[in-house]
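Section 3.1 - Work completed
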Amino acid sequence: MSRLGLALRLAALALAFLVLAPLHLLALRVLKRRSGLAPVLFHRTFLWLFSVRVIESGTPPAPGEAALVLSNHVSWLDIIAIGALRPLSFVAKSEIRGWPVIGQLAILQRTLFIDRARRAATATVSAAMGHRLANGELVVLFAEGTTGDGTRLLPFRSSLVGAARAALQAEGDRGRVRLQPLAITYPRRNGLPVVRSERSEIAWYGDMELAPHLAAFVQGGPIDVHVVWGAPILFDAESDRKVATAAAEAEVRRAIQGVVTGRTGREPVTVPAPASDLGTMGGLSTA
């Protein structure tokens, strides 16, 4: 992409932000949680301008059905790809709030920020998650806790899963949560399979500098993102949070493998209740 082409795309993206942001702020004031259309449009504008195609498969939660989405995490682009699907909010580390541009976008997305250095912060974020789930929203949690290199899945963390159930119970709900595994992969670029040497242009992890990474992304050409909704996990007061989280991790792993094999659909999963840890709180195309 030439410098002129990049400049024109950034200008168009800035214009979209200037148009959508005031409308979004007004909608937040008037409609509260039902005001998620503007972020979706902004994300879709980004995908269109930078030739990112999102392929969605599996069965997502029905409109108005609450779910705690447990996703793997590969890149900053995950947020845009997932955010373009439907209105939702994210859970993110508190440092992002202070990042230029990105922090403001995260705030407009109604991101829940968690300070991982403060143990009490988990309870605060969990209460906010429970409130949103009780109101029928989708909340996305990158369950690995950090980005990976796109070649392997890191262990999913379970603390916020159990805490979200406790927060739902505090809201007066029956305490049942739909855990929704979500797998995100980047299988093709310029129409060809992504090889290991190209993953650093997509995956953003470790101590990688953001500016060079963004430059490589811009110059790399069109990219496909495959988003797979896995089999939902029914999580209630008798479910084990660790078992539930492990089941979500396994489902994401299966879904990622399914992108390779072309098999992405599975039946719903119900988490068993073992004797230990009971009650612990702690455009788009479709395949």
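Second construct:
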Amino acid sequence: MTPFSDPQAVARYAEDPTRFVPGFDAMQRMTTLLLAERAPDDARVLVLGAGGGLELKMFAQAHPGWIFDGIDPSAEMLHLAERTLGPLAARARLQQGYIGDAPDGPYDAATCLLTQHFMDMDERRRTAAEVRRRLKPGAPFVTAHLSIPQGDGARATWLSRYAAFAVAAGLDPEKAANMQRAVDTKTHILAPEQDEAILIEAGFARVELFYAAFSFRGWVAHA
């Protein structure tokens, strides 16, 4: 059972990003602002990795005219998203699956937050291309995830900092060490320049770094 299908782990999910992702709330606010630079008041927004519903809720509260398609492979996480949204859920169509299962759009904006480090290189390339295909010309795509240098021991250093941040936020050191090992062996973390190259190869323009917080990076790019 993965953490995203374990009901107990899912129930704790809302606490984790603010504890383990530096500047999580600010990153979400910045994402909202970056989308709003191009998205109209009645925007249709694609949210990939929408399980949990935290970004959906922030987007929906900030822009009452926006509607959303939220895609996530975990049914449990989508149930949590629906509960998180409450009455705002009427503006979000939640669908279990991956980018290939998403409607064709066209969308005024798209996001993929804290998700791509679960995808290998080939899946990231496919995902970026499929998101790009679904966007209107000039529409923004915001993505943020684990992204660290890989050579000369840098990967180990940055992963140890990731764990240290969790300990500073209150996580038991032994659990943090286990989390560090799991992240190292079970996720697909690329170097920042590789992440940027994938967006450019997919046809995005103006790939701009907007968020860098310890082991996390975020970019905005335009179709």
